[in-house]
Amino acid sequence: MIVENNRLITLLSEEQKADLISLEKQFAHHLEYTIGKNKYTLGNTDIYKALGHTVRDFLIDRLNVTNERYLNEDPKKIYYFSLEFLMGRTLMNALINLGLYDIIKQMIGSFGFDLESILEFEMDAGLGNGGLGRLAACFLDSMATLNIPGFGYGIRYDYGIFNQIIVNGSQLEMPDHWDADGVPYEVVRPDITFSVGFYGHTETHITGKGKLQYRWIPGETVLASAHDCPVPGFNTSTVNYLRLWTAKSSEEFNLDYFNHGDYMKAVQDKSISENISKVLYPNDTTEQGKMLRLKQQYFMVCASLQDIIAQYKQANVSLDRLSDKIAIQLNDTHPSIGISELMRILMDQEDWDWDDAWDLTTKIFSYTNHTVLPEALETWKVSLIETLLPRHMQIIYEINQRFLEDVRKSGKLNETEIEEVSIIEEGNEKRIRMANLAVVGANKVNGVAALHSDLIIKTIFKSFYKIFPDKFNNKTNGITPRRWLIQSNPSLTALIAKKIGPSFATDLEKLRDLENHIGDAEFRNDWAKVKQVNKENLAKLIKGDTGIVIDPDSMIDVQVKRFHEYKRQLLNILRVIALYRRIKENPNITITPRTVIFGGKAAPGYYMAKLIIKLINNVASIVNHDKDVADRLKVIFLPNYRVSLAEKIIPGTNLSEQISTAGTEASGTSNMKFMLNGALTIGTLDGANVEMLEEVGRENIYIFGLKTEEVFATKQSGYDPRDWIEKNEEMGRILRMIRENFFSQNELGIFMPIHDSLFYTDTYLLMADFKAYDEMQKKVAEDFRNAEEWTKKAILNVARAGKFSSDRTIREYAKDIWKVPLLSTVPPQTSYQLG
């Protein structure tokens, strides 16, 4: 192995040279016969597509070998149900995991093209909204790397999360047709198609054995067709898959309507049916939108359960051993309707009695909770489910009745608590609490950070914990180092590998060895040079995307994540305004130059989040063009935040903003990504920040603000933000600037909702935390001026990031929830290995 241009390069053996020749022939074949191009008409997109097909062939070979091994060994299989998979770009990740990156780089170079430029042509598969979908992607990578037979199930949305553009400072949403040019690495499975029913009615009859039997007669049927995205493990022969369903009409075309001239009606049923997989998160502010979202949830679980059972029946006659051979993890409540669907299959189609069906179901499902906010827990109107899924509503009623009878018999809860755990929420309009259904029907329930897991058993699931204390556990989230270090930060990867070897790729705890080199001045200097180059690359990206020139020597201070009030991007921009005011009041003030970068999307219907984006952009417009400020302060909003953009921002970051109100963020994973890439963190004691503090020590992380119990106590005592504003004259002036349209001179009054929310309610306690945040930011600025000490802290943060590998998380799921062994008999790759 050698290091060339900051990349790990593998010296080719004779066997690998032969493999290179083979790959070149395969690549040339796809260029000519799959893409249909010759050397005179080639372009970059043609190279990308041919490369995708070449890698696809390689993946399919290994996928078939993996499936054959599973068939012979008959292991327990894990199925990860998620309505979101934020995969980002796939091709480079596959090249790294397969060990093909260096050899493909040479091959593409021999054709006269640059691999890194070619990989930029891949569109992000944005089939998720944020951290929940990205977590699912990391988990698939880790399951394959650990040789666990683990498969994802979701929906192949035609349009992923919207493309965000900024017009006059405001977010506008544009459709994200991510697969417009085709997906060369995808494997279409037209032979794997299942029927999914909706609406209709139920019928009953008495069997020959005198048993009451139910039968659901759907009023509408849609077909679910499978598309597979192969998921290769790192340095192993295992390739699993993510199976995504696309909706197809059961009736392609109504010729009778067409022949009578009603051309629109001829294709109407087809269009309505296929809307199910059209778009991620349809706007659910209307009844039609709510119906479509519920359709999506049932469509996914119905097709997936049919597929799982069909695979199981290939080797088993009876379903008796189903819980020994499969486990299903529900990623949040979105797929929890699957609990009632499996009950329907077992009772109505397999003729099981209730007790046996319920016993099997509760052994199979486990549920991951992702929120401590009661208002964020998913509920559906009973009337909606009765209309769309009449049989399932009957089953849910029965589950609830039997559950509540058992609870009352146990004497563990009083009537108020029994109302809390009921799956049915009573009121003027009855609703189904999907989280309660998930808890009742799951074998295990886990939170995603130690603090979060503790909070859910003390707050939203407090009464459930009295009934099922052994059901609850913690599984702190993690990220895959293959994507978030090796792929996103190759220069830092090369430096680390040169110093401690490459084994950290599959054992992130090996990064601890870096601590032995913190005292090495030459190593620290090399580390600082890597960070500086990454910052310069980020500066080029910012200029290209926004036209704004930043100083790469300034502190790069970044907050990139989904926009939500509890994540408190507003607190960050208020502090920027404060810094701007200080410079204006004293132009000769000495401050640490700082570039504050924001990125993230607001849900299309989330008015306040979109207004905060508008405020940030308006502030940036003033600050960035003020000559008094010059290069001492810049504010950047990078539009259309996505996985591939995160991979470029994170390596160049000095300071990571993780400033949610304590007790609101379940875990966070961007905090882990920044930590792994050598950024220091400023944050509250929220989510996984608590465990990051435990790992690195208080002197190596910047923690501020109210703790969770203090937040609760402050709210219970009758919190009034005006009390805090009166104590802070500067904050009063900042709010006056907003109120008096300093940042909205052409749109008078536009930011009054922000002003009023801070002045009168301040749900997320920005006013209470502002002073502590400001003081900690001053300490950050002071510490950053000491470059040697800052670098030492950065190295130590990376060295202590090992706990936050998704490999560790998946090992814990495997041991504690899924009860599957980690297979150590799978041979590693014998060629194409990184390093």
TrEMBL record:
Domain of life per record:
Bacteria
A biological process from GO: glycogen catabolic process
Q: What class of enzyme is it?
A: transferase
* Entries under Gene3D superfamilies matching the protein: Glycogen Phosphorylase B (3.40.50.2000)
Q: Where are the transmembrane segments?
A: none
Q: What's a GO cellular component annotated to this UniProt protein?
A: cytoplasm
Q: What is this protein called?
A: Alpha-1,4 glucan phosphorylase
Tell me which species this is from. Answer: Leptospira ilyithenensis
Q: What is the taxonomic lineage of the source species?
A: Bacteria, Pseudomonadati, Spirochaetota, Spirochaetia, Leptospirales
